[in-house]
# Entry
Amino acid sequence: MTLALAILSEDHDTFRLNYSTGDLFTCPGSRFLAHCNSEDVCMGIAVRFKQKFRGVTELKERKRSTGQCAVLNRDQLFIYYLITKKRARLWS
# Structure
C-alpha cells in the first residue's frame, strides 16, 4: 500500500509530504493517523481501522456528520476520522 506521510517542521509552520510503500499500521514513531470515512464507518480501509483500534460505538456516539472530524486516542496515538460522505457505497 502506498502511504502519504505529512511531516511537520519543528516550528509547525510548514510540512513536507513523503510517499512510501508499506503497512500504515506498522509505521514506527507514528503519533497521528488520519483517513477519510463515511458516517456509517463501514467500508474500505475503515474496516482495518475498526479491527486495529476498535471504537466504532464510540465514534458513532459522537454523531459526526459530513465535513466534520472524530478523533480516537489510543495510548497517545491519535486517529483522525475525516467524515467525507453520509454512507459508503455498496457495489453489487
